[in-house]
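Continuing the series of single-chain predictions for the mutant panel. This is the parent chain; the variants come on the following pages.
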Amino acid sequence: MFEVGGKYENRHGQYEVTEVNGDRMIVKYADGSESDLKMGIQERIWLNIIAEKEAEATRNNKKKKKTTSKANHYIKSISSIAEALLNPADIITAVTPTSPKKAPKIVSGDRFIYYSILEKGFFAVATITGDPKKAKASDYADLNFDEKKIHIYPIDIDAFGASYSKMIYADAFELESQPDYRDLLTEGEMYLKINEDDFELLAEALTEFTEDDDDDDSNEEELLDDDDSLLMDDDEIVV
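Parent structure:
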């Protein structure tokens, strides 16, 4: 979709394509700087920016009444995760009981960043995409629930780290909304609410860090929007 001479935009700003080579392109930003970028990644970013602008225009014109509640943002803690289990299939086995004593009320659109207590690192970002269904807590005996029933939610996994080296460690981030989060997250299955700005900061960093697992070019700087998703439609999360 990119053409030489075409003008587009990413999270660094507007740019003009000056050269296309295979699946990569050379771009020039308004400040005169140049970058060598992957077209596949930039296409997703550009399409997201277009969608954001269209959504903003719709809101400004009051053509669509907002009917859903604003998403909540949480850090979801787990006790530990083995490096061999750092993959989407195991990330989704995180849990929420039906009782509100141990978990907040969760609705479609709520977002989670997963945090390992033992490794002290953030390793995944996910979004709730629908209503829950009930399951037996006994089917997840390793999670030690007191309740007999738990909720399973459909999700999209937006980003995940495939190894400990792809975690974002807690000592690298301060959170304005929860400055003491390291001290508060002391055990698994905790839900710590943070504000959207803190969530976006973490999610963007984790997405950027994990997106280039297959790219050894350490000089490339490309940020993905938090909505750039692997879109694993059949995934479920037990929360």
